[in-house]
Structures are given as structure tokens and as C-alpha cells.
Write a structure and sequence with these properties.
The chain is mainly beta. 8% of the residues lie in helices and 46% in strands. It has one helix and 27 strands. A hairpin with a 6-residue loop joins strand 15 and strand 16. The chain is globular.
Length: 332
């Protein structure tokens, strides 16, 4: 009996020791999985501002390798879900020189679909390209084949005058989480344009920094199509993002402007404040607009509302932001 009691006591001591050891190990052993980090605006060092990049290449004819002068290269933002976002980032464009060389400067870091178009040649697009901060990316070349159908038209303002250097873009009329290539061209001094495309259904758009954006759908088969656009002068809002707690400017804030009364046709317009917190947002429709801003450690708690007339330039808008938390992590 005594042996049994001693054995039971020994087992109890061992069990207690084992529980204590496991508990201590759980408290102090390093975790193999890194938890999500939630930090206040003063707990992490500010990230260095993103630097614009440069992307360059050459456009040639596939038949003989000769450079294509006057070709238009477009860089369309390709973030996941871009087609369902209300924020429409403008497509960047670059024109080739007499040897077919092109360079796009001041390209914000991000993902892009890059495409090239030229009159009488089928357009071509590259796979999604990620551009890093301050990168000098070269060798983005295109070899275009003969073919395609022409889309022609004129971009005018509401008074009938031509709009020069307007961006006319065409994207296949397909719903996708990922952004497709936008084939682009620019209007001439007389407001006219011509874009050569393969037969398909397209969603076309005409845009200019001083006007609101206009869109239309076309079906392109085996004959040229005419697509004209009339743009309305857009409003401009200039202002500064200010931290409420310090009264100091907030640099590199993302500023979004949307109509006060949303509709299916309304879009947000975005901009990024400079080192002094100043921002400029163009191409706004007339009426009331709501402005919000977000930066590392700061966010708007309520929108700033202003009235914008047709083609009006509204200056001196102050957007106040309050302290906010930053959530960081990694998606794999």
C-alpha cells in the first residue's frame, strides 16, 4: 500500500512539473507565426516618401524592325480590383520619337499594363509590370504588326471648340477583377484623333486635365467607326492637408474627392499632397463635393464639403485630419 501511495505521489509531482514547464515554455518561447501589428501614429518610424520612376523602351514594325515614329505608349494602373473601384487613375502616355524610342517620366510606383498603338498597326500590350520607387526601367519594347480597324473622331468642348492633347483610350468591354490594357492616343490641335484596334467591343473614354471625363461604348467589326466626344469644363480644387492636433501640414496624404450626392455615373478623383501638404484635384463635375484625406497616422473623421461651379477654380481649401491607427501586415 505504501509503495502504491509513493508511486501516486511521484506521478503527481511529475505531472505538476510537466504542467509548469509547458506553461513557462508557452509564456517565453518565441512564436513561429508573426501576429498582426496594430500601432498608433507615434509607434513606428515614418516611411520614406515614394520616388517617381522612369520607364522606357522602343516601338518597331515587326515586318522590318524599323522604328515607329509617333506611336503612343500607355501605362494603365493595374491594381487588383481596379475595374470595380470608383477611383479612376489617369492613364499615362508617352510618344515615340523618329526612331521609335519612348520614355515615361515621373511614373508613380505601382503595377501597370503597358501598351503601344500606332496608325495602321495592331496594338500590343505587355504583361503586368511592377514599377518600384525610383526605378529606371528600360527595355520595354513592342513590335507591331500591320492590321486593325480605325476608330476616328473629334473631342470638343460644350461650345464646339476643339480640345487638343486630350487622351482618348479604349479598353475591351469585359468585366474583370484585373485591369486590362488601355489602348490610347492623343488628339491633335484640331481635336481629332485616330486609333487602330482589332475587332471587338470597347469602352472608350476621352479625358483632359481641364475637363470632366466622357465615356461611350462601341462595337468594332470590319469597317471604321466614328466616335465623337463633348467634354464639360471641370472644376479645380486646391488646398492643404493639416493635422488638427499640431496645426502642421501633412505630406504625402492621399486626398479623395467625390460628389456629395453619389450616382452610378459618379467617380472619385484622387491626388497626393506634396511635401508641404498641398494638393490639386482637377476635372471635377459641378456641384457639392466631399473631400477626405488619409496619411500614415492620420485620417479624416468627417469630410470637408465645398461647392464647385462649372470650370471654377476653388483655392484655399483646408482639409483637417485627426490622429489614427495604422495597420500593417503581409498578404501571401
Amino acid at each position: 500500500m505504501r509503495r502504491i501511495l509513493l508511486a501516486v505521489g511521484a506521478l503527481v509531482v511529475i505531472a505538476v512539473g510537466l504542467i509548469w514547464w509547458l506553461h513557462g515554455r508557452g509564456d517565453h518561447a518565441p512564436s513561429k507565426s508573426k501576429p498582426t501589428q496594430v500601432a498608433g501614429k507615434h509607434s513606428t518610424a515614418p516611411r520614406p516618401p515614394a520616388k517617381p520612376a522612369t520607364v522606357s523602351g522602343r516601338v518597331t514594325r515587326k515586318s522590318d524592325g524599323a522604328g515607329v515614329a509617333g506611336a503612343v505608349v500607355s501605362l494603365a494602373g493595374a491594381e487588383f480590383g481596379a475595374e470595380f473601384s470608383t477611383v479612376k487613375k489617369p492613364t499615362l502616355v508617352a510618344i515615340t520619337d523618329d526612331k521609335g524610342a519612348w520614355t515615361a517620366k515621373d511614373v508613380p510606383p505601382g503595377d501597370y499594363i503597358i501598351a503601344a498603338t500606332a496608325k495602321g498597326l495592331l496594338p500590343s500590350a505587355r504583361d503586368k509590370l511592377t514599377v518600384a520607387s525610383g526605378e529606371q526601367r528600360t527595355g520595354i519594347d513592342f513590335a507591331l504588326e500591320a492590321g486593325g480597324v480605325a476608330v476616328r473622331g473629334t473631342v470638343s468642348d460644350v461650345l464646339g471648340g476643339p480640345i487638343a492633347s486630350a487622351r482618348v483610350t479604349a479598353r475591351r468591354q469585359e468585366l474583370s477583377l484585373n485591369r486590362d490594357a488601355e489602348f490610347a492616343t492623343l488628339t491633335g490641335a484640331d481635336g481629332t484623333y485616330e486609333l487602330t484596334l482589332p475587332a471587338a467591343e470597347y469602352r472608350m473614354a476621352a479625358a483632359h486635365d481641364d475637363y470632366t471625363r466622357a465615356t461611350k461604348s462601341i462595337e468594332l467589326e470590319d469597317k471604321p467607326v466614328t466616335a465623337d466626344f463633348t467634354l464639360i469644363p471641370g472644376g479645380v480644387v486646391r488646398g492643404q492637408v493639416i493635422a488638427r492636433d499640431t496645426g502642421k501640414p501633412v505630406p504625402h496624404a492621399i486626398v479623395t474627392v467625390e460628389p456629395a450626392h453619389r450616382s452610378l455615373q459618379s467617380n472619385e478623383v484622387s491626388a497626393v499632397s506634396d511635401d508641404e501638404g498641398n494638393f490639386v484635384v482637377r476635372g471635377l463635375s459641378s456641384g457639392g463635393v466631399k473631400i477626405e484625406a488619409r496619411a500614415r497616422g492620420y485620417s479624416s473623421t468627417q469630410p470637408t464639403t465645398v461647392q464647385v461651379g462649372i470650370g471654377e477654380d476653388v483655392d484655399g481649401v483646408q482639409v483637417l485630419v485627426d490622429g489614427a491607427f495604422s495597420i500593417s501586415g503581409r498578404v501571401v
